[in-house]
Design a protein that fits this description.
Layout: E1 6-12, H1 19-33, E2 37-43, H2 50-54, E3 60-63, H3 69-83, E4 88-91, H4 103-111, E5 117-121, H5 133-150, E6 162-164, H6 166-174, H7 182-191, E7 196-200, H8 218-244
Parallel strand pairs: 1-2, 1-4, 2-3, 5-7
Antiparallel strand pairs: 4-6, 5-6
Helix pairs in contact: 3-6, 5-7, 5-8, 7-8
């Protein structure tokens, strides 16, 4: 399966401290496993030296003129992957939370055609960095909400360590949630009849930068993602009903 064309998309907002290591680790895995893999960093209008660092690295990059947030940055990356004929797209954080050595675990179910979407989960084995108790409470809430809406349990519903095959790329090329997209996208995938699979991975604490979700933004995050998830559910259910009539 090493002939499949893979794009690893790394959204970056003020990641000057970690991005060089992230790209270096991905390229090391590429060489170790002989993967036909490219790295695309999406600079989301960073205010630090992220763009200057990217220009020195062995990777492709997009430089967004305005800040679109994580969902907008990933949508730009998915469109790039779709239009340039990549077979697989992988999302990895630019802050170093997703170790590149776990990439083969994420890719294997796609290689074996066992899934359209593979999600790296830190909770299946419970090893490595597990996030704070407050965040785990929020993740559990979205796990239950997703389960209620699509009938499938995704343990790590906020994980941004994900791989998509070409079928899933077709879906996210058309639409992808614009802000804090991960729980919302799970409902989108479920109602789009995509096969989702979680695999156990170890994550680590961010290696630099500051999280966009702090205590003061937590309430906004929960409200926004809940409403966004319900909106996606209502929109896609209505679309499916119209197609059946």
């Amino acid at each position: 399966m090493n002939e499949l064309k893979i794009l690893v998309i790394v959204p970056c907002y003020n990641e000057e401290e970690a991005i060089a290591t992230v790209v270096g680790e991905i390229n090391a895995v590429k060489r170790q496993y002989g993967l036909n893999l490219s790295v695309l960093a999406v600079n989301d209008c960073s205010s630090d030296r992220t763009l200057a660092v990217l220009r020195t690295l062995d990777c492709l990059y997009l430089d967004l003129p305005v800040n679109l947030g994580i969902g907008g940055a990933m949508h730009a990356g998915y469109k790039f992957a779709f239009r340039n004929g990549y077979d697989i797209a992988v999302q990895m954080d630019g802050d170093g939370q997703h170790p590149a050595v776990e990439l083969p675990k994420i890719l294997q179910p796609i290689f074996e055609n066992k899934a359209d979407v593979v999600i790296g989960s830190r909770f299946l084995k419970g090893t490595g960095f597990q996030s704070s108790a407050m965040r785990r409470l929020g993740i559990n809430y979205f796990r239950r909400l997703n389960q209620l809406l699509i009938g499938q349990t995704i343990q790590d519903s906020t994980s941004g360590f994900r791989a998509f095959n070409r079928r899933a790329l077709t879906v996210v090329n058309t639409y992808y949630p614009d802000e804090y997209p991960e729980p919302e996208a799970i409902v989108q995938f479920g109602l789009s009849q995509l096969r989702m699979l979680e695999v156990a991975v170890e994550m680590r604490e961010r290696q630099g930068g500051i999280s966009s979700i702090n205590t003061s933004k937590a309430v906004y995050y929960m409200l926004k993602v809940t409403l966004g998830t319900l909106f996606v559910y209502a929109r896609l259910r209505t679309k499916r009903s119209r197609q059946l009539t």
